[in-house]
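Checklist before submission:
- one chain only
- standard amino acids only
- sequence pasted in full

Submission:
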Amino acid sequence: MEFMGTLLVYGCGFASGLVCGLYTARRSWNSRRGTAPTPTPLPDPPPPPALPAPPDARGAHEAALVAVAQSTQQALLRPLSGDLGGISIAARYLPAAENVLVGGDLLNTAHTPYGLRVLIGDVRGHDLEAARLAAITIGCFRDHAFTTPDLVRLAGLLDTRLAAELDAEGFVTAVLAEFAPGEVRLVNCGHPAPLRIGDRLESLDPDEPGLPLGLQPAPFQQRVRLASNERLLFYTDGLIEALDARGEPFPLDERVREALARPTLDDALGALHALLMTHTAAPLRDDLAMMLCQPGVRAVLPSVPAIHGPGERTGEWA
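Returned file contents:
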């Protein structure tokens, strides 16, 4: 799009220069003809026919940028299902339908030497700048997820990268997750806590709420038991902030647990989406990204807690 914009500017400049050049050449030619004894003035030419107003180049350019941003976002957050590193996953992105151009929801995975890693986040705002920051966040995650052993350090790298891009009011909420045999490790930076789905529905809130990325958070790592018959739902705030006609938010209750316990992960997300639409009885007002994960193989759990890693506070299984 920058290339097309530059081409348009250069094209307009060339046309203007060409017209000015022809006008100057004509005046010079007429002045040389001034040696004639009695030049006869020519009648004024008739006015050219009215042309239709040129399209708003700026508006067309912005519309094209929006279209590209929407296509890019949908490609990054496309529906996904399959198996990565022994973890079955299914993901969906549900865009808002009410006066929102593009959103800042982001979702990505990386099959690393440390296990499957997941990033889910939400950039403050709903515009082209939010989409740009979402792309930067995903890019930084992809750059460092394969070489950074510690999730807390990875969160610090994301924070440093985003701090250089965000304005004074900007931030990005995020959860980083790493799947290991029998457990999942979580670093939460101001984002809605994942849900563990088993015999009951549990919100895996950190001991202390953390600051979002871009605000110099000091997060710590949680270690949470996750058996092969349990699932984990990552989501953005479009789920819990979806309101019904009375202004009540979507409840995370037993119906949600039953929906997320459907035989396949794709069916489970479909059932959750249906519950959400029944609750709102209207199009979503905010974007929603979701990923449902389940270990594929039951692992033997260690008999003693692992040694604390950097920034890790929880020494017992949750």
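Reviewer check: The longest helix spans residues 2-32.
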